[in-house]
TrEMBL record, chain A:
Family matches, as Pfam families: Peripla_BP_4 (PF13407)
Protein name, UniProt field: ABC transporter substrate-binding protein
GO-annotated molecular function: carbohydrate binding
Phosphoprotein listed as a keyword: no
Stretches assigned to coiled coil: none
Keywords recorded for this protein, A-Z: Signal
Domain Periplasmic binding protein, first and last residues per copy: 47-306
Family the UniProt entry places it in: Belongs to the bacterial solute-binding protein 2 family.
Stretch forming the signal peptide: 1-27
Alphabetized InterPro entries for the sequence: Peripla_BP_I, SBP_2_dom
Subcellular location: Cell envelope
UniProt KW Nucleus keyword: no
Length: 332, 350
């Protein structure tokens, strides 16, 4: 028994040695690439769960290629352990910079410590992590979900008159929330509520989670329509729930975009199409094309330049006319 | 026990009493919260109202629970139904998009047939693992539960695939005789299965396998074929459910379609009074159970339960119903009431 354990232990330590030595020789010859000018980036993606995510991946890969950055890409398939494993392997390969979109907010302390100890800067994209020591990462590049909610709220306040579809002096809003507890759901609701507080005539009369899915959005909207016939506006936390709401509104014999106005966030292709068709009234973009900004930040970090702790993705908003204009060139 | 039970006694002892009662109480809660809850009106030539929505939204769970009932009756369980539903939807939607004429009736029929055949094969795969290789059902179907979602993601490239086919859409949103087509399809399947199992010996054979597979095999029942058949049937039902869900939004999101529907279906079966220990099953109970699940889903937005606590609400309701169903829990309640006659501890059918 003891003998067996010993053999196993030796085997493990030997293989670790082999790995580390392999890693160090790599570092010596290429020195992470800093010497010969090429940058090696390890990117650990969440998965490929939506069109948004796929566009995000594509943007990072294409920009890396265009800028001559050697990108090592892994897909964690929505699992944190895969992602931690991927980051560890990047540390062992001694890449120049690690970037990743954390699957969940917590539990990354240990692996980030390892990266810091190895002297590899880390950039977070799209989602934040919850660590006490913020020096564990250089910067966080991603959307400001609160700001997105605020933009939606601002538009509604500006267009309150037109949004009061039934003309009774109050704008009754129903809200389709994202997955309960998810950062975008919490922050978008918060930003929206903050802005509409400026106008007393606007009121959120009902709010329920639709889990970010079309089916969820449709079922919740069906219920809202049955219990309340004075709904003026739907605010959906993403396009998909808005698209589900459109189906529910049509089934109720009403015209989406006219009888009930719809505001959503994301600007994915199906959503933009519905906006151009007049079924949605306003979309706040949540931009997945982080590639250029990410590569730019990576270069700055490696050159030793100061970067802000938080970098917000460049995002815009779309009205129906703007959607019709940009729709042919949308990449996702 | 009296020789000729009165009508009241027969009703009180009927196994459907508690599920029906639970459903009625839930409806009552909704009516109290919103008096107009049960209102139904005509709209564009079909009925429109909460009740109609509940009927339509109950279809997927009802279909999945129907297949699940038979599987559970053989003392098995099928965890893969949600993944199979996602595969059915993915196959059908990619077929419709790939077809020459996306909006044609023939395209929809071909795509759906193809998807259903795939699902029967997947169900038969589960049956193979359980009946021939003797793997425990919960493990055997867990394989496809995990792998199936990956398969459906691979089919759709992980994208939300939107289709444009009015015939396909009608499967969920269409109406026949002013009632939702999806509900009629589900009810049709329940009636067909009831006839098949109760008008032939099939139902009894399934129960025999569930009560004692070895004894039934020695008695000449082809247990292996029976088990194989029920898993194949469960695959078929799950596939139909997947098509209804996809048709409801004219799109397939392989990541979320049918997610956790297996748990809702098992719940519907249990609420309907079929024991997870196998043996006797009640299709009527499953029918009520599925309606209960759909009504519960509608109750949450209707009475305005905040998102943060809606799982908690659901859990409390389910616990209450399960306690109602349990003869032991009911007996406890009765014993505590002073003066009430102690319950005869005999013959309560599971």
């Amino acid at each position: 028994m003891v003998k067996k354990t010993l053999v196993a232990a030796t085997a493990i330590s030997l293989s670790t040695f082999a790995l580390t030595s392999c890693g160090s020789s790599n570092a010596e010859s290429g020195s992470g690439g800093n010497d010969d000018g090429t940058i090696t980036m390890g990117f650990a993606q969440v998965g490929a769960e939506s069109g948004w995510r796929t566009a995000n991946t594509k943007s990072i890969q294409e920009t890396a290629e265009a800028e001559g950055i050697d990108l090592k890409f892994t897909d964690a398939q929505g699992k944190q352990e895969n992602q931690i494993q991927a980051i560890r392997s990047y540390i062992q390969q001694k890449v120049d910079v690690i970037a990743f979109s954390p699957v969940v907010e917590t539990g990354f302390d240990a692996v980030l410590q390892e990266a810091k100890a190895a002297g590899i800067p880390v950039i977070l994209t799209d989602r934040a992590v919850d660590v006490e020591d913020t020096s564990l990462y250089e910067t966080f590049l991603g959307s400001d979900f609160v700001l997105e909610g605020e933009k939606a709220g601002e538009w509604l306040v500006e267009n309150a008159k037109e949004a009061d579809v039934d003309g009774d002096g109050t704008v009754n809003v129903v809200q389709l929330e994202g997955t309960t507890g998810a950062a975008p759901a919490i922050d978008r609701a918060e930003g929206f509520a903050e802005k509409i507080a400026a106008d007393d005539s606007i009121e959120v009369t009902a709010s329920q989670t639709g889990d970010f899915t079309r089916d969820g959005g449709k079922q919740v909207m069906e219920s809202f329509l049955q219990s309340d016939d004075s709904i003026d506006v739907v605010f959906a936390h993403n396009d998909d729930m808005g698209l589900g709401a459109i189906e529910a509104i049509e089934a109720a014999g009403l015209e989406p975009g006219k009888d009930i106005q719809i505001i959503t966030i994301d600007a994915v292709k199906d959503g933009m199409q519905a906006l151009a068709d007049g079924k949605i009234n306003f979309i706040v973009e949540c931009n997945p094309l982080l590639g250029p900004q990410l590569m730019d930040l990576a270069k700055k970090v490696l050159d030793g330049e100061e970067v802000p702790e938080r970098v917000v993705t460049e995002e815009t908003t779309f009205t129906q006319e703007q959607a019709a204009e940009v729709l042919p060139e949308r990449q996702y | 026990m009296p020789e000729n039970p009165t009508l009241v006694q027969r009703v009180l002892r009927h196994q459907l009493l508690w599920p029906v009662l639970a459903l009625l109480v839930l409806l009552l809660v909704n009516v109290v919260a919103k008096p107009s809850f049960l209102d139904v009106r005509m709209q564009d030539g079909h009925l429109y109202g909460n009740v109609i929505d509940i009927m339509r939204n109950s279809a997927p769970v009802m279909l999945v629970a129907l297949g699940m009932t038979l599987v559970i009756a053989t003392r098995g369980i099928d965890l893969s139904v949600g993944a199979i539903a996602a595969i059915a939807a993915a196959v059908a939607c990619t077929r419709i998009i790939g077809a020459g004429d996306e909006a044609a009736l023939s395209t929809a029929v071909m795509a759906m047939t193809y998807a259903i055949v795939v699902c029967i094969v997947l169900g038969a795969w589960n049956g193979l693992l359980v009946s021939v290789l003797g793997i425990q059902p919960i493990i055997a179907t867990l394989i496809l539960m995990v792998a199936g979602r990956g398969i459906s993601m691979a089919i759709t490239d992980g994208q939300i695939t939107t289709v444009n086919n009015p015939w396909f859409s009608d499967l969920a949103s269409g109406f026949v005789l002013t009632l939702p087509l999806a509900f009629l399809v589900a009810v049709g399947m329940v009636v067909f299965t009831a006839l098949l199992t109760r008008r032939t010996a099939l139902g009894m054979l399934i129960e025999a396998v569930g009560i004692n597979p070895e004894a039934s095999r020695l008695a000449g029942v082809r247990a292996r074929t029976i088990i194989w058949t029920v898993y194949g049937f469960s695959g078929l039902c799950a596939g139909l459910a997947g098509l209804v869900i996809a048709a409801n939004t004219n799109s397939v999101n392989a990541n979320s379609l049918g997610l956790w529907i297996e748990l809702d279906a098992i719940l519907a079966v249990v609420i309907g009074g079929t024991s997870l220990m196998g043996g006797r099953f009640s299709l009527a109970g499953t029918f009520i159970g599925a309606l209960f699940i759909a009504t519960l889903a509608r109750t949450i937005p209707n009475i305005g339960i905040p998102s943060e606590v809606n799982y908690l609400f659901k859990a409390v309701v389910v616990i209450a119903v399960c306690l109602l169903q349990s003869p032991k829990a009911r007996a406890l309640l009765r014993v505590r009431r002073p003066g009430a006659p102690t319950l005869v501890k005999a013959g309560s059918p599971a």
